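Archive transcription. Copying these from loose printouts into the bound notebook so they stop getting lost. Printout 1 of 2:
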Amino acid sequence: MTGKNPYTIGFGKIPTEYIGRNSIIDTISEALTAAPPDEQAFKLTGMRGTGKTVTLTAIEKRFRDNKDFLVIDLSCNHDILTDLAAKLYSEVPSLTKFIDTNLNLSAFGIGVNISKKSPVASMDAAVNKLLEEVRRTKKRLLIAIDETRKTAELIDFIQSFQIWVRNELPVFLIVAGLYEDIESVENSDGATFFLRATKFEMTPLNIMYIRDSYRKNLKVTTDEAEKMALMTKGYAFAYQVLGKYMWDAKTKTASEDVLRLFDETLSERVYQKIWSELAPKDRMFLGYIVQKDKMTVDELLESAHQSHSAWSVPRKRLKDKGIIDVSVRGMISMRLPRFRQFVETMVMIERA
């Protein structure tokens, strides 16, 4: 194999070899361009490494190429309204001129104070005027927030956004975040609008797409490509990691050296962080769950000497974090590739 490795283990960047979430991207794109729009806010959620940021980036890229849209990236860790006004001022020439001519935002460190207009006291009022100007110019504003988590600034922003939507301003919002972070915002006081916004989960990638990617790029047999694809369990980051090390090794089978690098990278980049955030009881149950590829709830409770009531809360946490699959009633299995081996190692270390 020659040329540049098409697989990458860098988070957030769209890889050369990329299995897109076309259904999600197309659904959101259709909603953003509808006239009038039925929905103006969307949530992308999933665990680490499932492709939330890549999908968000792909949507942004599509609309940066659309002359009818303005696209702004924001962070939930800052004063979002002020950041929004500042970015509109610095990145959109027509709004730069509008602010300098009509708004005195010098109190917020934005623009130049060359007029005799009184400084704007409320950033919320200033942003509302900016959005009215966006509407007047027949543009639409798409705001993207990655790594969304609950902050006072984000809750304030959501409440303002709800008013903008009610006033039929052409503003749209897409956020991406971990299951638990998105849920914490949804359950906040004053965030009912956010709770109702359409949510897309980053489910496992199609195994057949992964197989075909490996067969085409790594020049392996169909059987070997399928074996490798199944090994990833459709986990987007694992798909990139295994592809990268197979390409680098220039081998036709997943050798012990490739699997060692695969395990090390998953552990260092994702699994250790997941493990560190688990409650002690969650870890305890996982230590029993990994003893088999699949396990019934009754088997788990018997092995762990626990009751159904003791399992209910850890079950929800492990499910919501995307670690276990409980979609089949009464059955438990692992969703993450080779997480079983990782947990066995961690349990052994903690018991030593």
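Printout 2 of 2:
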Amino acid sequence: MNYIINPNCDTSFISGKGNQISIDKAIFELALKDSHLVIEKIVKDIPVDIFAILGMRNLSSFIGELFAISFAQKSGELFIKNPHQDGYPDFLLMDTIGKEILQKLSSQGELRDKSPFSPFINGGIEVKATCGSVPSPSELRKKGLTKPDMGDTRIKMLKGYDWKAHHRETNNLIGLLWDFDNKIPLIIAIFFSSNLTENDWGKIVTPKEGGGRTTSVSIMPRDGVRKMYNNWILVRDDQRYINFLNKYNKSSLISK
């Protein structure tokens, strides 16, 4: 699978301590390749359909987590996974200052506490994945179509995409868009933004009483999605996805 790379993308961000950090673009490419290698190995070596077992929501989270781990590994220890499951950001910046902070926390026996890691004072990056949205079953029936099933390529029916967060302070975000290709989930596009604000996230939606086990969530509106699109990193060299992304964002930034 071939990808086109944005030669003008900005992969820098400001740390929690005010230092400018630049991420090597090659890390995005290497993490993408490694993620796909793992997925291919899962398909080849595991005799059950892991993706179907996970379901669409958990599969999307899995792809985001897989890319994030690969990204940290390829960063030369510039980033490490947040020690706390509910910490923010997902991956902590381990420049000289970050290492000093972590060492101090370790010496004080605070590595299992949540407060130093939510948020982490030196900052880092978040990673979120989405497979986009398709019309409702009733809308599709009117067109003589059915909703895509697990493993079905979705690009012909995609009507939009966004990312979700548990709070509106999420920034330094790597956003992934993925789709199925021959029943295999693969990352289609990668975006990055270091200038997201609270206004780039929607109002926090809280679960209704008795409405299940969903957690509070903020959905990125079109303006935030457009900001991510404006700094696309990699996109699959496939005109279907290029056309969709450009059309959805009312622009033509992505081209071969």
